[in-house]
Amino acid sequence: MNDAKLKQDDEDGGDRQRDWESTESLQSKFFDRRPAVVARQLLGCGFARRIEGVWVGGWIVETEAYLSSRDAASHSARGEKPGNASMFGRPSTLYVYPIHAKHCVNLVTESIGRGSAVLIRALQPVWGIERMIEHRGLSSLDVSDGRMLTTGPGRLCHSLAIDRRSDRVDPIADPNWCLFVGAKVPRNRITATSRIGISQSKELPLRFFVDGNRYVSGLAGQHRRPRRDSLP
DNA sequence: CGCGAGATTGGCT
DNA sequence: GCCAATCTCGCGC
Predict the structure, then answer these.
(1) Is the pLDDT score of A6 beyond 60?
(2) What percent of chain A stands above pLDDT 90?
(3) A108 in a domain, yes or no?
(4) Which of residues 133-192 of A touch strand C (CB under 7 A)?
(5) Binning pLDDT at 50, 70 and 90, where does residue A11 land?
(6) Which nucleotide has the shortest C1'-to-CA distance from A167?
(7) Which among A69, A114, A123, A158 is least buried, having the fewest CB atoms inside 10 angstroms?
(8) CATH code, domain carrying A78
(9) A179, pLDDT greater than 50
(10) For chain A, what is the domain count?
(11) C-alpha A22 chain-centroid distance
(12) What is the per-residue pLDDT for A143?
């Protein structure tokens, strides 16, 4: 079933007219708030980049907030270093961090120098799906559904070809990136849990996901009964 | 199908 | 060396 959907989504190679022309782009002010607030509000927003004329991306369905203080799991907890400098940059800046031979992408929040950010953990793939499959080194036959593409922070970076070269980029100012308001996800459709894969500050409920969306990583997204794409 | 060990790479001690 | 905001595969129930 998803084969047909993937094909349809990508009929023109992802290079079709952007279908979000009339939508509302996120502004710098959006990110100049506490990371947990931004993490919640990013759910349902569109996130995409253009590579060689092809837009790749989708709807944000899972995020985690990393705080500027009292958060031992945050990369900013031990102060600013060359490797994490972008996390202390202006709000909306990308902070891209390599881990386990993969990458994770964050959006910086609050004002310059705070060191807080929101990790994008999963997208519902929408634009340039054939291109994402290429980036992942898969064939469409290997992809029974889109979860292999953009579920999980490492996989979504791979699909969008995000690596350290995208660190410090401002996706709001850069014409080859796009962040915009999509579906407003009502509060009662958002679940907050503890964050995944960290060893410190585990207890803080700073992971947010769209309830029931199957592109959410971990148990919450994969084997949940109502298996629907709960976004546009 | 759920769980745990191993893989793999860059950055920091 | 060692560790990490991960992912994948293989094994066991």
Answers:
(1) no
(2) 78
(3) yes
(4) 148, 152-156
(5) very low
(6) B10
(7) A69
(8) 3.10.300.10
(9) yes
(10) 1
(11) 21
(12) 82
d(Cα A49, Cα A149) in Å, to the nearest integer? 15
In the three-class reduction of DSSP (H, G, I as helix; E, B as strand; rest coil), residue A61 is classed as strand
- Residue A151 in any domain: the answer is yes
Residue A191 counted as domain residue: no
Residue A31 included in any domain = yes
Is a pLDDT exceeding 90 seen at residue A226? no
* Closest CA-bearing residue to C1' of B1: A223
Structure-token match 């709001």, residue found: A172
**Predicted pLDDT of residue A231:** 62
What b-and-e string marks burial along A4-30, b requiring 16 or more CB atoms within 10 Å of the CB? Answer: eebeebbeeebeeeeebeeeeebeeeb
For strand B, the positions having any atom within 7 A of a protein Cβ are: 1-3, 7-13
Q: Which nucleotide comes closest to A115 if you measure CA to C1'?
A: C5
Give a three-class secondary structure readout of A174-190.
CCCEEEECCCCCCHHHE
